[in-house]
Known about the structure:
The chain is an alpha/beta fold. The protein has 27 helices and 14 strands. The protein has 4 domains: about 5-145, 3-Layer(aba) Sandwich (Rossmann fold); about 150-270 and about 565-655, Rossmann fold (3-Layer(aba) Sandwich); about 285-415, no CATH class; about 420-540. A 7-stranded mixed beta sheet has the order 6-7-14-13-9-8-12, sandwiched between helices. A 5-stranded parallel beta sheet has the order 2-1-3-4-5, with helices on both faces. α20 (about 465-480) runs parallel beside α23, α21 crosses α23 (about 520-540) and α22 (about 510-515) runs parallel beside α27. The model has no long low-confidence stretch (mean pLDDT about 95). It comes from Lottia gigantea (Giant owl limpet).
Amino acid sequence: MKSLHQCSNEQWTSIEKRLSHAIVYMDNDCAELLHWNGGMTRFLQAGAKDVRELSSFESGSKSDVKAMFILSTPLYDVGGEIIQDIIKASHFQYVVVVSTIGSHVHLYHKTGTLEGNEQTLMEKFEENLLIWMGNVNYTAEVVIIPLFTAQITNNLFVTPAFSSLYPLLSTDIKRVELSFNKTLTNKAERKTFDQLSDIENGYLPKPYITNLKMFVSSLNGLLEKLDVREDIYYIGHTSRFVAHELDIYSPARNRRKVAKERASIVFIDRTLDLSSCSTSQYDCLLDEIMNILPRVPGHHNDVMVDMSSLCSVHGDVGKTVIVPGSLSRSINTTPQSSILNSLVNVKIKEGLMDVNRQLVEAASSEKLPVKLTGKPGRITHQQLSSTLQLFQSNYRAIQPNLDILQVAMATVQSLSKKTSHHDNIVGIEKRLLQMADDKDSPSLLLEILKILKTESVKPVSERDFSLDDILALLIYSYSLCGADFIEEEESQFQEELINVIVQDKDNLSPAVKSIVGETVNKSIVMAIVEDVWSKLVAIGTAREDLDQFSSIIERGGVMSPTECKPLLNQIVEDIVNPSKPDLIDIKHKQSGMKDLLKSGFGLFMTVYKPRPSDHPLLILYIIGGITPTEVKHIQDIVNKTKPDIQVLIGSTRLCTKEDITLSSFSSDNLSFNKS
């Protein structure tokens, strides 16, 4: 079976064959995919003249006769209009359009049905390209290449084009109901939904279903490259929607008939456990870096690294002159050999030692005067910084070692910015966890309220804990314990939160501003806080449908404290458990006559129940984001159990505490916008 890297590389190679002398225009999501697959260097080495943003403000010069457009959205939408604007403002004679989504989805997006000839639709767009160029004798080509994955480590990939896909909560039920009933003329056919389990794919809004079909189309492209026939499993309602779309997708059904290999894919809703991703208890170095350093603008899975100290510039001038570094690997580095594996798959101390070892080896290979200082087995950011300075202004030595230099610099900058605030937050989280298992302890809500009241009387700049911290602790607590809090306590908390937000209206963080909006007054904030609380309750009830995985609290005893047992850990442990316990909450998507016959025979005899561990490849895909620490925990379980299968971990994005706060409170998850 091909590796994920091989599959992705083949797709990018097919693009490279068309790049010679072309100006390339890409949307942000495709640019992020390129960023993790060789970057701009890859395209320039393949013969591209330039790589630019897909924007109506762009155009080619008179000497530019060839253009390539790469986009992750439907052609008959805003993306197509931007292509038209650029072509009409240029002098192109040869245009190639690369779409990452299948022609079936383009047909559904334009017509609302899968009935029709999708090939005719693609040919019509090619005709439009010729018209926009102003000469039907020029050359126009539309190709489908399902670019989908950005591979972070050997066993971890993300899908930037779907980073905003986040599971629906019970707060979305009435909106789905309203949207569906608006499409009906006969009042007798109208539906009433009381819970997410009442909602089937056919009831979801068309834009939402279109986006799910786009996701499935791109995923099918990956499975086609892997040449696998998959068994589909899911846990969570949004995962159920996705599983259904993958099951019925026509090209996927055709692929399954001829695929040579077997695989299992398990879709998991992030919202079933938000405690594990809203915590500050990190177990790997990448989590530290992701939560401290700023993101690359327009990206969801990488950070900016200030590299100016290695260059011939002085002071703060370098930060505005030198393009920031990042964590993405260079074109000649494979995911298997990337230093990022050490940032994710081992503990922080071991990761630091690996970064230091590779940095020292790089300096030694360039014959720089390395001085080994410090205690054996203990690496500090000062030691790393000292070795990094050996490379200062030595561009001959910097160029071949950029991967390790950028990662080492990111490590130095994140560790040097770490303060006692982090340890204090961890202490609060641990205290809340112990209180959750102690019936005699005060309410978790009252404990957080006490912190909020204590901090609110201080000037914003002198506070130990911010409103961002308070919101993250609320998510942590509701997801951990459920929504069983006393109504009076919730009312007290809401009132205090409203007062603090209004009081701090001129000093709100970007995250809180995103939630409450630009206009801050008491009436608006009251409505916002009420909405936030309804979502907290929805988060607290997200596991109510589960039996086997209904709790993420592992009760303590006389000699051991209460611990949080993340949902992903529980799922993976049961999947790879050699004793093969029943997987009550992990649903198998049955389809076709073969599965129906199995179910029928099951009435009369014991029939083997399919399990995700049945096949050589297991893909776990978390809808809504995953943290590097969670990836490490999954890998630890797999390494300990040593199942005879390969486990790939995928997600919509790498997430931080702030990402989870924004996705939970400020995003419109029913209208996540890809089209």
